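Colleagues,

Please find the record for the four-part complex below.
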Amino acid sequence: MFDELCPSSYNPIRFGDKWAALILACLEHGPRRFSELRVPLARVTPKVLTQSLRSLERDGMVKRTVYAEATPHVEYELTPLGRSLLGPLAVACAWTREHWDELLDARDAYDHAASEDRRAG
Amino acid sequence: MFDELCPSSYNPIRFGDKWAALILACLEHGPRRFSELRVPLARVTPKVLTQSLRSLERDGMVKRTVYAEATPHVEYELTPLGRSLLGPLAVACAWTREHWDELLDARDAYDHAASEDRRAG
DNA sequence: GGCCCTGGTTACCCCGGGGATACCGGCTAT
DNA sequence: ATAGCCGGTATCCCCGGGGTAACCAGGGCC
């Protein structure tokens, strides 16, 4: 559903901070461990991933659970509130799929016209 | 429809830059002049408003028209692309109306727990 | 000439998100 | 003992969004 997610900075519709939308999508189908999240989010440094997860946790979107068993680990999962964001997120993704090219074309046209103007003085 | 819009920074779902969602909402019902936009956006300085409008124009969301008549002025209006964002924007507003309190409660709880932890060491 | 309206621009500054890199403490397995 | 894995921290730095304040050019008006 969120195949074409990219860092939010490239999208006119954004959720939370730069990587939040991707994190929400990664958690859509169940809990994930920190190291599991690092795989699809390989370009995100651990510090930034922690920051983003803490922010989502603070906003009640994500629940963090520490399992202090023989092999201790941490799991992150969506709360009902976090899950309620998946609807708007899907709407945003649909908008982007449908209009992304149009937006890029508009940017090219605008930038081209701007450089023409500069040349003309 | 967008009665409760606030600067995007306070919202987990954001459109464009800080003031873009408010601008889209202001343009929903027809073209507006620069000075007309400054009324509902009184807290936004002209520089920042211009920046935001230029960005929306570059992305093909807004069309800027100069009327060089006896009394010259400028009008900003939504393009079809900009208008297509109103749907996702309405979805985002609905989400916020429904879940805003829940989010604030989560923040309070998180911050409170954090300060307790600090006290306990 | 002097003033206002319109739609901006210019210069300056500040803060915070987020990137790079390195390090860390607990636990287990061998 | 030492080498992993796990889930992070610590430090430093940079850039750009966005805020303040002041200034500006063209036209109309009186």
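The mean pLDDT of chain A is 91.

Comments are welcome before we finalize the supplementary table.
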